[in-house]
Design brief:
By secondary structure, the chain is an alpha/beta fold. The protein contains 17 helices and 8 strands.
């Protein structure tokens, strides 16, 4: 087989080689390979430079502004207690505001029990009807005067130093928001969560570090992120509708503030455990992003004549449109080209080459992951899923294509049941 594969490779013309390479460049794996390797080398070289020529660095946790952690949720009684316990006592100037967004369970009662145990620190707000996450966040933000607001999902658990890690970048007055690392707590439950565990490590832990280094980070994740409260007030809070974390991050960038990444600010969340739940989640996520927010709501930030135009925002826009939208349709075109090509249709060696190169890219991308990792033993076990990651990425690419197409043709995000009907009715004001 190897001899036959070698003979087939050597028989390819330059246009056939280019066709193969084009398809591989459209996948997430090879892109992560190049981007993460570059970032790793950059940080290594810059670290040496700082050690030789920079001034004495500040203490690791020298910045200590007042912080409000906002925990909003719907029917999250089962996990709320653990979330609050992971927050309390981890930071000195701290308050916690819990918003029960019209739950049917006893979420409010669980929150009030902790409020009784920690008076003056934990505050619980409850409303009898569901208003959606954006509305709940806006309510929480009006009940605090803290300098920094940190949003946490009600099913996420924070590492003991997560808040400290998030607030340190705010020493820079030009930083408006800080994203954090979200990891999969149940990554060893089954293959579904295992793949997600490695995906999160690559796309969030390392991928967002790359985006932050290039100043094109488009999102401070709703699972864990910090914001300057003064900017939230200035912007009038979160807009209604899905994708509120992406939308708020982009709006902060449009004001001229930087969005950076606190790589070692960890929160651990439960990932979907079935393929059905995973595909449903990703269909919603993908539809909220490149089309709804980049191609529609914030498309003007890529126009050089617009008052909010900034070169970094244009690159962020192009990054979001290219890799989250155009690459998907490019893969469709590439697949058709492969099927129509007389020497590759459907040649087993062509697909074998495609798979092998994709796996090699995944392996190379693991190097930077291990370089930055603080728990190499755990992450190395998660990384063992790499041989099947190309197939997993192709599955998610299919979901991305489907979701983007549905959003373009039918504006599915505006009928998303995740958002309450009375909220959906006003989401097209812009």
């Amino acid at each position: 087989m190897l001899n036959g594969w070698h003979l087939w490779l050597t028989s390819l013309t330059w246009d056939e080689v280019a066709t193969l390479l084009l398809g591989m460049s459209l996948l997430d794996g090879p892109r992560y390979c190049v981007a993460t390797a570059f970032t790793c080398i950059y940080d290594w070289v810059f670290g040496i430079w700082r050690s030789l020529f920079s001034k004495q660095p500040e203490a690791e946790f020298s910045h200590c502004p007042s912080v409000c952690v906002m925990v909003v949720g719907l029917n999250e009684a089962s996990g709320l207690g653990a979330t609050i316990e992971s927050i309390i006592g981890t930071y000195p100037r701290l308050e916690v505001v819990v918003v029960d967004d019209g739950s049917d369970d006893n979420m409010a009662e669980v929150g009030r029990a902790y409020a009784g145990q920690h008076p003056g620190i934990v505050k619980v707000l409850s409303r009898p009807w569901r208003g959606g996450k954006s509305s709940a966040l806006n309510i929480a933000a009006t009940h605090t005067s803290a300098e920094i607001v940190i949003c946490v999902d009600a099913d996420s658990h924070l590492a003991s130093d997560a808040i400290w890690e998030i607030v340190q970048p705010f020493r820079d007055a030009n930083v408006g928001a800080v994203s954090a690392t979200v990891s999969v707590r149940n990554c060893f439950t089954n293959f579904v969560t295992w793949f997600q565990g490695l995906e999160y490590l690559q796309s969030i832990f390392v991928g967002r570090l790359v985006a932050a280094r290039l100043n094109v980070l488009p999102i401070a994740s709703g699972a864990l992120a910090g914001f300057r409260r003064e900017l939230l007030v200035r912007l009038g809070g979160w807009d209604v509708g899905p994708g509120e974390d992406l939308d708020m991050t982009v709006r902060i960038r449009r004001l001229g503030y930087r969005v950076t990444f606190a790589q070692y600010a960890f929160c651990h969340t439960e990932a979907p455990t079935t393929w059905k739940a995973l595909l449903k989640q990703r269909r919603r996520w993908e539809g909220d992003g490149p089309v709804r927010h980049f191609a529609r709501k914030h498309v003007d930030m890529a126009k050089p004549w617009h008052r909010d135009f900034r070169l970094s925002n244009m690159f962020m826009f192009l990054d979001g449109i290219t890799f989250n939208l155009l690459c998907g349709y490019g893969m469709v075109i590439w697949s058709v080209m492969m099927l129509l090509h007389p020497d590759m249709r459907p040649h087993p060696y062509a697909w074998m080459t495609f798979y092998i190169v994709s796996v090699i890219a995944e392996v190379i991308a693991l190097g930077p992951l291990m370089y930055y990792s603080r728990n190499r033993k755990h992450d190395a076990i998660v990384a063992l899923a790499f041989p099947l990651m190309p197939a997993y990425r192709m599955l998610l690419l299919g979901v991305r294509i489907f979701s983007n197409t549905a959003e373009i043709l039918w504006r599915k995000s505006f009928t998303e049941p995740h958002v309450p009907p009375h909220v959906r009715a006003v989401t097209w004001r812009w």
